[in-house]
Amino acid sequence: RTVEPLEYYRRFLKENCRPDGRELGEFRTTTVNIGKCLCSITTADGSALVKLGNTTVICGVKAELAAPAVDSANKGYIVPNVELPSLCAERFRSGPPGEEAQAASQFIADVIENSQMIVKEDLCIANGKLAWVLYCDIICLDYDGNLLDASVFALLAALKSVQLPLVTINEETGLSEVNLKQKNPLIIRKHPVATSFAIFDDTLLIVDPTAEEEDLATGTVTIVTDEEGRLCSVHKPGGSPLTGAKLQDCITRAITRHKEVKKLIDKVIKSITPK
Amino acid sequence: SMSPGDTSVLAGLYGPAEAKVSKELPDRAALEVLLRPKVGLPGVMERSREQLLRQTCEAVVLGMLHPRTAITLVLQVLSDAGSLLSCCLNATCMALLDAGLPLAALFCGVTCALQPDGTILLDPTARQEQEAQAILTFAIGSNDRKVLMATTKGSCSVEEMQQCLAAAQRAADTIFQFYRDSMCRRYSK
């Protein structure tokens, strides 16, 4: 396994299964913890912890107030930031964010924008004067492959748990008054779910790759779908070429995965709502 | 340098050259892509584009023939009037051809804009990109017209994506013909 990793993997792939016992189209066990009671971040407005097998990603959302930009006076801001600290895998060094972290941050920003998950107009409190800024910090605690799927899932779960206090602008003083007693959940319009595939030897597609499989793969594809079956993002950063038909297979698998994830999130949300 | 319409990108390729010990790979050439925007410092968007370009190149460049070397690709955006990513892809491929690096296949970049009324527009201008419902960029390989790289902005249905892909594959023929003509012109002198 250490001397000839590719050959070791090929032997398993020939039998249509993987060393950890999964089928080619099978995901690892997914667990999610949402909110202040189960999740560790009590200072954040919303948080979620997602475990996809060994890959652990935690997302914290903090809401702050700011003045909206001059050219889009009725829009708030969402600022995602993905961090891959050196504790999650030995290949990440401490210091400025590396290329992988930055590309992941851009991907998350694109997913939020493309899927219209949170419409920026909803974040506006007073036109031209006050709007919410949501800082979404996604931190990987343990990297075992498939970072993008886990990050998107953690972001979705955390945003669902966000409770924003009611803010009113006092007419006389022009200052904002924050009412911490009255909290409303965020309006989330769409629920995007990401599904990642690794391409082996130009032909074989496996779902939810581990870190080892990602290193050996010749390419990766990530598909983000929403609940209507629309594609929010097809992200295939280079790697071996794929035919249109193979891409279609990936999309169909992604749509099935979406249903599974949606069920899981709904179950978890229902279990924490009475509190 | 590549200028479809008003979008213009200048590509410079250096390599295979001596690699720094920290960056060299024992069995293949180490590829590095640097994308400089027209104004401002490179940000997260440039990093993500660099990653896309780098992995696309790694798929076609036969790095195994030049182990422990570094190939550096520097792209400078001169003007941006829409379809920037596909312009960068085309510039990259032409730079690779010009440098004479061993390639497994050629690739070309095609941008499709899906307009609100459902029609597909290839190679959109900046104005059309803003009004479009979705913008899909594909890198199509020269053998079998397979998809090397795909990025989408905005959401679309699965059928629309397949239609865009088919349109992009047809358009790839025109671009590859352009490559051939340019190379003929360059070497016929």
From TrEMBL, chain A:
Protein family membership: Belongs to the RNase PH family.
Compartments (UniProt record): Cytoplasm; Nucleus, Nucleolus
GO CC list: cytoplasmic exosome (RNase complex); nuclear exosome (RNase complex); nucleolus
Pfam families, alphabetized: RNase_PH (PF01138), RNase_PH_C (PF03725)
Protein name listed in UniProt: Exosome complex component RRP43
A biological process from GO: U5 snRNA 3'-end processing
Gene3D superfamilies: GHMP Kinase, N-terminal domain (3.30.230.70)
Record key words, sorted: Acetylation, Cytoplasm, Exosome, Nucleus, RNA-binding, rRNA processing
Gene Ontology MF annotations: mRNA 3'-UTR AU-rich region binding
Residue ranges annotated for the Exoribonuclease phosphorolytic domain, each copy included: 26-165, 192-255
Primary localisation category: cytoplasm
TrEMBL record, chain B:
Places the protein is found: Cytoplasm; Nucleus, Nucleolus
Record-level GO BP terms: nuclear mRNA surveillance; poly(A)-dependent snoRNA 3'-end processing; rRNA catabolic process; rRNA processing; U4 snRNA 3'-end processing
Coiled-coil segments on the chain, per record: none
Sample GO molecular function, one term: RNA binding
A Pfam family this chain is assigned to: RNase_PH
One GO CC term on file: nucleolus
Keywords, comma-separated and alphabetical: Cytoplasm, DNA-binding, Exosome, Nucleus, Phosphoprotein, rRNA processing
SUPFAM superfamilies xrefs: Ribonuclease PH domain 2-like, Ribosomal protein S5 domain 2-like
Highest taxon in the source lineage: Eukaryota
Domain Exoribonuclease phosphorolytic: 5-102, 106-170
Subunit structure: Homodimer. Component of the RNA exosome core complex (Exo-9), composed of EXOSC1, EXOSC2, EXOSC3, EXOSC4, EXOSC5, EXOSC6, EXOSC7, EXOSC8 and EXOSC9; within the complex interacts with EXOSC3, EXOSC8, and EXOSC9. The catalytically inactive RNA exosome core complex (Exo-9) associates with the catalytic subunit EXOSC10/RRP6. Exo-9 may associate with DIS3 to form the nucleolar exosome complex, or DIS3L to form the cytoplasmic exosome complex.
Protein family: Belongs to the RNase PH family.
Protein name, as recorded: Exosome complex component RRP46
Organism (species): Dasyornis broadbenti
Gene: Exosc5
